[in-house]
Design a protein that fits this description.
Blueprint: E1 6-12, H1 19-27, E2 34-41, H2 47-57, E3 61-66, H3 71-81, E4 86-91, E5 95-96, H4 100-110, E6 114-124, E7 130-134, H5 140-148, E8 161-163, H6 164-169, H7 181-189, E9 194-206, H8 212-215, H9 217-234, H10 253-266, H11 270-283, H12 288-299
Helix pairs in contact: 7-9, 10-11, 10-12, 11-12
């Protein structure tokens, strides 16, 4: 078998809700010369059986299944199994747009100095409803300044494509920085090459109240400070006094769901509005706001 141009690496843990849409978005890419390595990280739901279905249908898919180890170790396992010179990251709840790989590989072929490439994204809620557009800086200098401030999200991890040899050179993901492994990797990659984003939206980035940004925020802040101190030392820069007291924090889950519900209703996605209303009532059964959303969602306006 010839060496593929791209190795797609995805880790999936209890991902059955969005998995088919995510996998289909990769298999539908206009650039088709890739292998698709999916780590089933000890899922307890139907994730593995869904993946086995796809494995039978498409020879590009390679499934690795074993007990749960966490995202960072799973990604390193995927990198170790990869054969291609370029690695494309993907998450099991997001949706890649059809020309993502085509645009990213063309850019990297034209810019050999770039070791890490992201793109802008469209933000969607758990039901796939549009909730915003998220552009990002495209040039190395601006991105590095933001990374050194701890803004790892300025290069969205699930839409990145990076050079396998560069990641190998810096030692891959570091398990001690699980939950902030993307910022750590990006900062170390920026010491050996340039980083960039494409201005086009190439991914539908799903927001969910079960995401790390909602559930493990305090641990992220603690690890972020360690990563940034080391990064400033690697880049031979003075180490500032980091203060994350004013950093962005996600809204409480019930408040975020209420906002999503009304937005879905405004966009005439009644199914999504009803789903959000049902979840809001589960979280806040005695809330007048929850019952108001439920009433309007059932009515359809």
């Amino acid at each position: 078998m010839n060496t593929p141009s791209i190795s797609v690496v995805m880790s999936a843990y209890n991902a059955q809700r969005y998995l088919r849409e995510s996998v289909d978005s990769i298999l539908s890419q206009t650039f088709a010369d890739f292998e698709f390595i999916i780590i089933d990280d000890g899922s307890k739901d139907q994730t593995l059986s869904i993946l086995r279905e796809y494995e039978k249908q498409d020879k590009r898919i390679r499934i690795i299944s074993r007990p749960n180890k966490g995202l960072t170790l799973s990604l390193n396992e995927g990198l170790a199994a990869a054969k291609a010179p370029l690695i494309a990251r993907m998450d099991a709840d997001d949706v890649s747009l059809p020309d993502r790989f085509e645009k990213q590989i063309a850019y990297l072929n034209q810019h050999p100095e770039v070791v890490l490439l992201g793109a802008s994204v469209e933000l969607i809620d758990p039901y796939g409803v549009h909730i915003g557009d998220q552009p990002y800086p495209t040039d190395h200098e601006t991105l590095l300044r933001r990374l050194l401030k701890g803004e790892g999200g300025c290069i969205p991890h699930p839409v990145t494509m990076y050079r396998a040899d560069a990641v190998t050179k810096i030692g891959g993901y570091r398990s001690e920085y699980n939950n902030i492994e993307d910022l750590d990797l990006f900062l170390r990659l920026a010491t050996i090459g340039r980083v960039a984003n494409l201005p086009q939206q190439l991914l539908k980035y799903r927001r969910d109240t079960g995401s790390i940004s909602h559930t493990k925020r305090e641990n992220q802040f603690r690890l972020k400070k360690q990563v940034l101190i080391e990064a400033h030392q690697l880049h031979k820069l003075p180490v500032p006094d980091f203060d994350f007291s004013t950093a962005w924090r996600p809204k409480p889950a019930h408040e975020q769901i209420r906002i999503w519900g009304w937005r879905a209703l405004k966009l005439r996605r009644v199914d999504a509005a009803r789903g959000h209303a049902k979840e809001l009532l589960r979280l806040k059964p005695f809330s007048l706001a929850a019952w108001k959303l439920w009433y309007c969602a059932r009515r359809g306006h």
